[in-house]
TrEMBL record:
Superkingdom field: Bacteria
PANTHER family: DIACYLGLYCEROL ACYLTRANSFERASE_MYCOLYLTRANSFERASE AG85A (PTHR48098:SF1), ENTEROCHELIN ESTERASE-RELATED (PTHR48098)
SUPFAM superfamilies xref list: alpha/beta-Hydrolases
InterPro entries associated with the record: AB_hydrolase_fold, Esterase-like, Ig-like_fold, Mycobacterial_A85_antigen
Name this protein carries in UniProt: Enterochelin esterase-like enzyme
GO biological process, one term: carbohydrate metabolic process
Molecular function via GO: acyltransferase activity, transferring groups other than amino-acyl groups
Disordered, as annotated region: 365-388
Length: 712
């Protein structure tokens, strides 16, 4: 495999141009809806590892047979921050579109395959279905956190029936294991939001599994649960049909109601109305903001909301104030920090709410890890501030200029997937601009671009730049985790200067960036050790500063006392003969302009991807020229003609790094370890760095490597 640096324009998985996020409305209008028949014998398009990596391999022929030729293929699913819908772009390799995403947290995921934004198809190798969306499939990532969502053992599950009532309306009814008509049961009426099917509570909400597992644990009272379609309040016709078919209590003390979004608002109105029919009410991301409380005798009103990405967040702030004014008692589950208005949150809400029904409970507080409401979330008014707008707790609001008011599809592509992979999140129209709030993001350094109607666009409101990627911008979410990639106080860091020199190999004047430590003394008697740090394919000498945060990393290590004072030279590796360029042009120029050593024991060389391949090439051809050597996300290649003894004798440190299985060089890298072992070359392997073939990994690699240099 060639040692290519990450390069967005040629790497669709990393945000190739024009791959758009797909909204339900757009699909309804424009998608080519194709639901292939079962293909159980086909090779699965999706495999999920035990540690949560989802590997997609979609045959080109299958896509073209279904929707015709396409230039891009994406997997759209609930992979984004706060489980928001986002697109994961696949890369075409030969006869398949492929990509690896993860590690994903335990839970249920749903996805669909799309080509060129609007051409949708169902994964025919996945037998799961989402009744309300024929193109969608699901998969489950097991783990302790998702245990309430797992299938219960055979024989310990409740029964789900379809109940027809009124003028042909239907509801789903769950009855507990061992249900018998010999005794009456309390009943919970469960509603989805407007325009959402009752089946979504089963296909996406895992209501059956949640109720089964609560029953097995004896964490809930035996009850009948009735799931109606969204769009209307629970009427007398449904209540009567349930009472006629099932043995249920009919008094309010044994009736409960809950719902999501608009269904949550309807549930509260019904419970607080007079005469009341419900003693228990739950609002999951409910959108009610005012109440008319004719009934204050409800035993339980419990409110749930996601974080500020949930439209119900501000509504919940207003609702709590309204309930206080009306002197209605209620409980608040706290703000879910990890989810917005989606099924991931509502699954947790159901699992928390049901055990509180028809029984005495001691715990009336919020769920573990949930926080308090901090007042309404209000980003700056449109056009009043450069974007993105970043809150202290990691929520980021992006806004376009008015240049795209006539666009049809706008999204933000960024490194915010698990491990730093790249996802695109759709923006929504806000007047003559587009906006979206994403988060919470962990403290770290992020980069992004806008995708406007399948064209990559620079956020001109953001003054940051990336020389090799003109449409990219960057931002930092501050915090302790991001300390090493954050600027040190002004005046305390090292200096970055431009070094211009003549390259005989390239036959041109070339430029390198050079970091010198605080207190650098050009007249010091002992020359400084020198570290040559190389970029990857499609990049140049600016990337380690603009994207790799090399200055910030080196500054912090120096101020922390971890770094041997050294000079770091970041050159341009885009040249036909890297070894000759470094040894005969760049290194002599560095020695001419800076007080650096030519002693091999005082020289280090490292690079990422292509630069890592160049580093290995130098090690093979000139063993001992650099006593400290490191490669990030690169393979050693062939061992033919390699002088292993000379490498061992002349190298004090050979340290290797690679991303996880989302790093496309991972297979070749692991094969390289076998080659090195066979040759008997001594090396250190840092272990897998979580993340893809991207800067999140390489920044961490430099953070680990720099303090190890020139100390042996």
């Amino acid at each position: 495999m060639p040692f290519l640096g990450y390069h967005g324009r040629s790497h669709p998985q990393s945000g190739g141009r024009g791959l758009a996020a797909i909204t339900a409305a757009l699909l309804t209008i424009a998608a080519v809806l194709l639901v292939p028949g079962p293909a159980a014998a086909d090779t699965p398009w999706l495999t999920v590892s035990e540690d949560g990596y989802a590997s997609f391999t979609v045959p080109v022929a299958a896509v073209e047979a279904a929707v015709g030729p396409v230039s891009q293929v994406a997997i759209e699913g609930n992979f984004g921050p706060s489980s928001t819908r986002a697109e994961f772009g696949l890369t075409r390799r030969g006869d398949a579109w492929s990509g690896v995403l993860g590690p994903l947290k335990p839970g249920l995921y749903s996805y669909r395959v799309t080509g060129d934004d609007t051409k949708g198809l169902k994964d025919p190798t996945n037998s799961t279905v989402v009744a309300s969306d024929p193109l969608r499939s699901t998969f489950f990532v097991a783990g302790d956190a998702a245990r309430p969502l797992a299938d219960a053992p055979e024989g310990q599950r409740g029964t789900i029936d379809t109940l027809t009532y009124g003028a042909g309306s239907k509801a789903l009814v769950w009855t507990p294991p061992g249900y018998t008509a010999r005794k009456p049961y309390p009943v919970l009426f469960l509603q989805p939001g407007d325009g959402v099917s009752a089946t979504d509570w089963l296909d996406l909400g895992r209501a059956g599994q949640i109720l089964d597992n609560l029953t097995i644990r004896r964490a809930m009272e035996p009850m009948v649960v009735v799931i109606s379609d969204g769009g209307a309040a629970v009427g007398e016709d449904l209540r009567k049909a349930v009472a006629d078919r099932y043995r249920v209590h009919r008094d309010p003390a044994h009736q409960a109601i809950a719902g999501v979004a608009e269904g949550g608002a309807r549930a509260l109105r019904a419970a607080l109305a007079r005469p009341s029919r419900y003693a228990y009410a739950g609002s999951f991301s409910g959108l009610l903001t005012e109440v008319k409380a004719d009934n204050r005798q409800v035993k339980l009103v419990r409110l749930y909301t996601g974080n500020v990405t949930d439209p119900a967040y501000n509504a919940t702030v207003r609702l709590t104030k309204a309930l206080d004014r009306a002197r209605v008692g209620y409980e608040f589950d706290g703000v879910n920090p990890d989810a917005g208005a989606n099924w991931n949150a509502w699954q947790e809400n159901l699992a928390d709410f049901v055990p509180r029904l028809f029984r005495k409970v001691r715990d009336h507080g919020p769920s573990a890890g949930h926080g308090r409401l901090k007042g309404e979330f209000t980003p700056p008014a449109p056009g009043t501030t450069p974007t993105p707008f970043v809150t202290k707790d990691g929520f980021v609001t992006f806004e376009t200029t008015t240049d795209f008011q006539n666009a049809q599809n706008v999204k933000v592509w960024a490194n915010w997937a698990p491990g730093g992979s790249w996802l695109r999140v759709p923006m929504t129209r806000a007047g003559d601009r587009w906006r979206v709030t994403v988060g919470p993001l962990d403290p770290w350094f992020y980069y992004y671009r806008l995708i406007v109607d399948r064209t990559s666009v620079k956020d001109v409101s953001n003054p940051t730049k990336v020389t090799t990627e003109p449409t990219w911008s960057t931002f930092l979410v501050a915090g302790e985790r991001a300390r090493m990639v954050t600027d040190v106080p002004a005046g305390r860091g090292g200096e970055v200067e431009r070094l211009t020199y003549r390259s005989a190999v390239a036959n041109e004047d070339r430029t390198a960036l050079v970091w010198t430590p605080p207190g650098y003394d050009p007249e010091r008697a002992e020359p400084y050790p020198v570290f040559y740090l190389q970029h990857g394919g499609g990049q140049n000498y600016t990337d380690w500063v603009e994207m790799g945060r090399a200055k910030q990393i080196l500054d912090h290590h120096f101020l922390d006392g971890n770094l041997v004072p050294m000079v770091v030279v970041m050159g341009n590796g885009n040249v036909s003969d890297f070894n000759k360029e470094l040894l005969e042009n760049l290194a002599p120029a560095a020695r001419e302009h800076y007080n650096v050593s030519s002693d091999p024991s005082r020289q280090a060389l490292a690079g990422l991807s292509m630069g890592g391949g160049q580093t290995f090439g130098m090690l093979k051809a000139n063993p001992g020229q650099f006593a400290y050597v490191a490669a990030f996300s690169a393979g050693f290649g062939s061992g033919a003609g390699v002088d292993a003894q000379a490498i061992n004798d002349g190298t004090r440190l050979l340290r290797l790094y690679v991303g996880d299985r989302t790093d496309f060089v991972y297979p070749s890298f692991m094969a390289s370890l076998d080659t090195l072992n066979t040759l008997g070359i001594r090396y250190e392997f840092d272990g897998v760095t979580p993340g893809p073939h991207g800067w999140d990994v390489w920044q961490k690699n430099l953070i680990d490597l720099a303090p190890r240099l020139f100390k042996r």
